[in-house]
Amino acid sequence: MVSPTTELPGPCITFGSRVRKSPYFDASRRYGCNAYSIYNHVYMPLYYQDPVTDYWNLVNHVTLWDVSCEVQVDIQGPDAFSLVSLMTPRNLTRCKIGQAMYVPIVDECGGMINDPVLLRLRDDHFWLSLADSDVLLWAKALAYSRNLRVKICEPDVSPLQLQGPKATAVAETLFGDWINALQYYRFKETELDGIPVVLSRTGWSNERGYEIFLQDGREGDRLWELIMAAGRAHQIAPGAPSQIKRMEAGLLSYHNDMNLSNNPFEVGLGRFVDLQQETEFIGKQALQQIQQQGIHQKLVGVFLDCNPVSVNEERWPVFVNDSEVGELTSSVYSPALDQSLGYVIVPIGYTEAGQKLQIRINTGETINAVVTALPFVDSRAK
Fold first, then answer.
1. Which residues neighbour 190 within 8 Å (Cβ) at sequence distance 6 or greater?
2. Cα distance between residue 38 and residue 251, in whole Å
3. CA-CA 20 to 30 A from 48: which of 95, 108, 184, 266?
4. Which pLDDT belongs to residue 10?
5. Domains of the chain with bracketed CATH
6. For the whole prediction, is pTM greater than 0.90?
């Protein structure tokens, strides 16, 4: 126990009542989580053994992640579909009950507010499974300003992710062989030993995976142990969202790779923008103007010519011929590729594959980089 006068061993995050603990927090401590971050006002595990060992557990076997920090926004009522359609440039008219969709959320200028997964539970009932920003407040403000007949709250819903090539074998042990018919981005409400859950074929690894949305926070520890017991024959290990794997797969991280200053076209999300739909969603006019004028900058991948690079704690400046032109948003070393990787956002004129850049990293050293297409590896979920 640390006393008030004890000198702490370097920078750390201490636990307190202001930041929320998930229903799986005690399990994460028991299983040896070595680092946490704060995401959506919730403690989020970062790694257990170390990032590389956890990565190989994910790639070769199966891992269980506490992602309760993916806070849910529950929207239901007669105008629920109208509200969620107002919030995103993606056309939701074909979204069926039991279907999930990746839905960029933008403001009136087309700036990225969040990039959640939308789940349609009923005709008039939706969840938004959030990245790291307070969308509940945005949704409530829009509903109030438009006098929409909806109820908006944060429900008692706490997701886990089961990710890796052996995830299906573990899920089949838990739920039965019906899970083999569950299509990508589809979900089903069910129970596990009397515990109410929603099981979806989604995840943030682009390995085979599932999300298990617990609907009773009191059962968090029991659900965790049920999954770990079912996975022992498949070398299951606790894990967390992997910076290495998500970057290899070309996946984005809100606040790292995009924020309110970026529109969907700049960060490769234009395929989720439907400007021809009838819905006058928030930001439609702004995005139409951006599309007509064209974007001036773009997020692309780079190979970094250096020893294994650290994960960047801030954005690093990008140069061409000694002139600063952009920023590196994310970096990581890929053990599978034996290569340091990065994402950079730079002017359109510097985004062609093969373009040479220079990046000043955290040590003060300037390293060479070469633009390459994303993803770095096959990004199709298995």
1. 175, 197, 198, 199
2. 20
3. 184
4. 62
5. 25-70+156-246 (3.30.1360.120), 72-153 (3.30.70.1400), 296-382 (2.40.30.110)
6. yes
